[in-house]
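Bumping with the actual sequence this time:
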Amino acid sequence: MTKVKKAAAQNGRVTLKAVAAHVGLSAGTVSAVLNDAPSARHIPKPTRERIIVAARKLDYRPNFFARSLRKRRSFTIGVIAPEIGDSYAASIIAGIEAGAREKDYFFVTGVHRHDRSLFDRCVRLLLQRGAEGIITVDFALEHSLPVPAVAIPGHGRHEGVTKITLDHHHAAQLALGHVADLGHRKIAIFRGHPRSSDSHDRWTGLREVAREIGFEIDPELVIQIDSTDSTPNLGYPYGKQLIETKRPFTALLAYNDVSAIGAIRAFQEAGRNVPRDISVVGFDDIAAAAFHYPSLTTVRQPLDRMGQLAVETLIDRIESEGEAPAELAVQPELVVRESTGPAPRSSRD
């Protein structure tokens, strides 16, 4: 260990002045390089590289609070999700974490539970704690926010809010087209809870595609989910309800993966085999979908990428203070696994 590093270590951490002394330059020059200040562009490249190498060698760590005070910045963004343990939100937050870490930002998470008053309270608390921007997850915004914002998924148009949207019409083509190609004609559908921000668009997409391919949706086989549970219990009672109606069906298009997994449990308890008797298609492609038994056929949303895209867009807006793109579209993908198969011969037209 060098004398400089030994002396600094005795005081608890290596200071910027210690780095400057090590390279024989002024603290102002070293600060400009390590903080990527505009003035650093005028410092010769070999000198900049020498400063960076020295900082790494000495294990210099910038003082976040000093940096915040100097730039009058918090380098913090807020994330408001439906629940911390929600599988859909967790995948998005993983992408947010990766993106924020890459940009040296912190993020603070709040929970809205699809409650507007709770959401508004989270916004106030995040702003009080210095959040420079906010990412919302699965919440239907009704107005702009006081800071730049990104909505995942986004619906409607609000100034200063970028919405990340999925092509639900294409998603419906993938899901309905898949089971139709397998010969299924009696298809049950789980509609999402009205407070879930994708519910309306997903249902609209299914109806449009059904008309386009000449498929008639049986209203008796459309089940409205009236729960915001984030576990497979979301779909379990509705799976039982479908069985108890005694109305024949050979496939289920579930609102999301957790409702699909819950419904499969209900079908199995009733003695129905998936996929021999009933094929099931989920939506999202959460981590558990591939490891459930049978593994779940689903329409994949690029959730991790959506989280990273949200961070990149939000930080770019914060730092450039430019116009926010109104919308960023992502595309779904059908992932075929074990939960879908040919319709039973007796049920085919």
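The tokens above came from a reply further down the thread. The chain has three domains: 3-70, 74-165+303-329, 168-301+334-347.
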